[in-house]
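// run 5 | inverse folding | seed 20
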């Protein structure tokens, strides 16, 4: 059943076209993920479809009840951001609107709450259109993806992974089309060059003074004209060739690290058993464990469990958290105070960089700051763009260990994927807090979990961690029964070789003891 239809919808901001969509349709039961870079108009499109904002052009036709769950900013300081978000979600779902528009509904939710939200959205009877940078969430929920790219809205069937595969296919087709364009253009240019050479030779008279020379001039002039006409036709073909833009191919990031030989596969951080507190409040107990150079570790746990406190414990150093002198830590916590608003992107990164201009530009290009973009001043950038610049500034400083607290907040999916690849390619140590399950899955080789006021270190990746089922610990009775069965077997063995009243009495006592425990 069709719930909403939008036709020729267009929206601009000042003189810049945000997006235009020829046709948008929402059916009952739809689960639509809206994706696109920061600033492409995702939030604006949700507001238009929800009836809170009018388009510049086009019509929205619907008789369905609608509700918009906006991006939430934490204003309640007594509760965690996840608790505030969950309250808004519960109230929105209780309204039972026929179409729910949700803008970043996973903001501040830990992995457990995101699992619960997935189930809530799956049970929802109406249609859902949602914006999220959480790829795992989009995979679990969505059956369609709407993409805003180059001011156009395009629909893809399937979840986010299916969309990513279709985009990869489009990229390969684009590369093939570009190669064909370049090949055809070169062929035509070479043909033009050869025709022009022949035309030039046709104007030269014969060297000997034969009778033929008297009549050759008109012949060769006619031949030259024909060759020039053919060359001109070929040049027209070159002009008429449909221009194919060259695909952007990102350079490989190869970074040298300070003290690289001294830290790789060696202990860089040692955590002793301790109780971490904030004020007088006990947060959790840590076990004894070590972090080795080159490891990539995800730190997970419920909101308020003490993850950020643990990161600061390592950064600040303490007798119970020792850091190797060879370890140089860079800390990224989305603190935009490290940026100078009046300076350019490049100048902000370069002033603390450990690396040369070529690598700085390569990393910035990975984060989608191309060519002259790097000379934009920070004060004109969006929030998400500033976060990327702050990350680049920390990432390219003199470090061999990167500590990050929720690095993906406020980033669009494309930026998250760029960040992810940089972390995968990084040879140093990475310790990061994140609720982005796909980032954890792709980057981390070890998981540290804070749960029930206790920290546990899991030596395995995210998939292994999720599938792991701890063996049930035997209680004292099971251990006692195991010991009794061993003694009973020993006594029986002796009785079979050397029967005696004493052994028989011992055997009966053991049996009676076993019965008592079993009862």
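// decoded
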């Amino acid at each position: 059943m069709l719930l909403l239809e939008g036709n020729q919808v267009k929206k601009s901001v000042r003189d810049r076209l945000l997006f235009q969509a020829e046709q948008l349709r929402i059916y009952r039961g739809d689960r639509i993920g809206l994706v696109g870079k920061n600033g492409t108009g995702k939030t604006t499109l949700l507001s238009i479809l929800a009836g809170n904002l009018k388009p510049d052009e086009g019509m929205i036709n619907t008789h369905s009840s609608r509700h918009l769950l906006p991006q939430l900013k934490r204003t309640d300081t007594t509760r965690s951001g996840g608790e505030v978000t969950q309250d808004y979600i519960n109230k929105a779902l209780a309204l039972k609107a026929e179409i729910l528009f949700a803008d970043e509904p996973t903001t501040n939710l830990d992995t457990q709450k995101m699992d619960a939200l997935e189930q809530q959205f799956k049970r929802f009877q109406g249609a859902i259109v949602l914006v999220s940078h959480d790829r795992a969430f989009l995979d679990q929920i969505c059956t369609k993806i709407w993409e805003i790219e180059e001011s156009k809205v395009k629909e893809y069937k399937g979840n986010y992974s299916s969309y990513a595969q279709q985009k990869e296919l489009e990229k390969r087709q684009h590369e093939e089309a570009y190669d064909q364009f370049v090949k055809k253009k070169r062929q035509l240019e070479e043909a033009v060059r050869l025709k022009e050479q022949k035309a030039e030779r046709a104007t030269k008279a014969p060297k000997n003074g034969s009778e033929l020379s008297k009549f050759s001039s008109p012949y060769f002039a006619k031949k030259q004209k024909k060759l020039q006409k053919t060359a001109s036709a070929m040049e027209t073909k070159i002009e008429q060739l449909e221009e194919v833009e060259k695909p952007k191919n990102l350079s490989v990031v190869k970074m040298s690290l300070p003290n690289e030989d001294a830290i790789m596969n060696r202990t860089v951080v040692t955590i002793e058993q301790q109780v971490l507190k904030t004020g007088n409040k006990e947060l959790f107990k840590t076990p004894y464990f070590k972090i080795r150079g080159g490891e990539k570790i995800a730190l997970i746990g419920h909101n308020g469990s003490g993850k950020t406190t643990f990161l600061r414990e390592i950064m600040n150093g303490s007798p119970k958290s020792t850091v190797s002198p060879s370890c140089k830590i860079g800390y990224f916590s989305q603190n935009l105070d490290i940026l100078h608003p009046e300076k350019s992107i490049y100048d902000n990164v370069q002033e603390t960089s450990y690396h040369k201009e070529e690598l700085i530009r390569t990393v910035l290009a990975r984060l989608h700051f191309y060519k002259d973009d790097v000379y934009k001043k920070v004060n004109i950038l969006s929030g998400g763009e500033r976060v990327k610049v702050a990350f680049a500034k920390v990432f390219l400083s003199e470090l061999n260990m990167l500590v990050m607290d929720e690095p993906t907040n406020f980033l669009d999916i494309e930026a998250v994927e760029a960040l992810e690849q940089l972390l995968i390619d990084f040879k140093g140590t990475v310790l990061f807090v994140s609720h982005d399950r796909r980032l954890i899955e792709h980057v981390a080789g070890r998981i540290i979990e804070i749960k029930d006021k206790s920290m546990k270190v899991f030596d395995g990746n995210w998939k292994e961690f999720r599938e792991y089922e701890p063996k049930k610990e035997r209680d004292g009775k099971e251990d006692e029964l195991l010991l009794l069965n061993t003694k009973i077997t020993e006594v029986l063995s002796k009785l079979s070789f050397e029967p005696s009243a004493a052994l028989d009495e011992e055997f009966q006592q053991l049996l009676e003891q076993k019965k008592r425990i079993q009862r």
